[in-house]
């Protein structure tokens, strides 16, 4: 018996996946269910509603990065990171030139 063939990955250009797509989709579904099931005389264009949902998702993402916990995490991460530009390694290489 032969082993089953591994699933082949499609070749070609990488597909861009918007990081806010899932959140915008959730917002759209929630808003559309309220707006389009109601009895309001004027209902917005679905495409305009989708664009607004993406803007709301982007705003939520930006605001979530400004919370105190996230700011503290980013500051701690920056302090722990090694900045190779500021490391002086001339002594290490000078001793190997003998």
Brief characterization of the structure:
The protein has helices at 21-35, 46-64, 68-80, 90-95. The chain is mostly helical.
Helix content: 40-55%
Report Rg.
26 Å
- The termini sit apart by 61 Å
Largest beta-sheet characterization: none
Shape summary: elongated
| Helix-strand string | HHHH
Q: Output the structural class.
A: mainly alpha
**Structure summary, number of beta strands:** 0
- Total domains: 1
Q: Which runs of at least 5 residues are low in confidence (pLDDT < 50)?
A: none
Assembly category: single chain
- Strand-residue fraction? under 5%
Quickly count the helices.
4
What's the rounded overall pLDDT mean?
83
Secondary structure layout:
Elements: H1 21-35, H2 46-64, H3 68-80, H4 90-95
Helix pairs in contact: 1-2
How does this structure look, described?
This protein is mostly helical and 98 residues long. It has one domain (21-90). 54% of the residues lie in helices and 0% in strands. The chain contains 4 helices and no strands. The chain has helices at 21-35, 46-64, 68-80, 90-95. Helix 1 crosses helix 2 (46-64). The radius of gyration is 26 Å and the shape is elongated. The mean pLDDT is 83.
């Amino acid at each position: 018996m032969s082993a089953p063939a591994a699933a082949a990955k499609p070749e070609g250009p990488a597909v861009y996946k918007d990081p806010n797509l899932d959140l915008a989709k959730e917002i759209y579904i929630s808003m559309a269910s309220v707006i389009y099931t109601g009895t309001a005389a004027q209902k917005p264009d679905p495409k305009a509603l989708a664009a607004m949902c993406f803007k709301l998702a982007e705003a939520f993402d930006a605001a979530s990065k400004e919370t105190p916990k996230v700011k503290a995490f980013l500051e701690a991460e920056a302090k722990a990171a090694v900045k190779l530009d500021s490391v002086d390694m001339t002594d290490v290489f000078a001793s190997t030139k003998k």
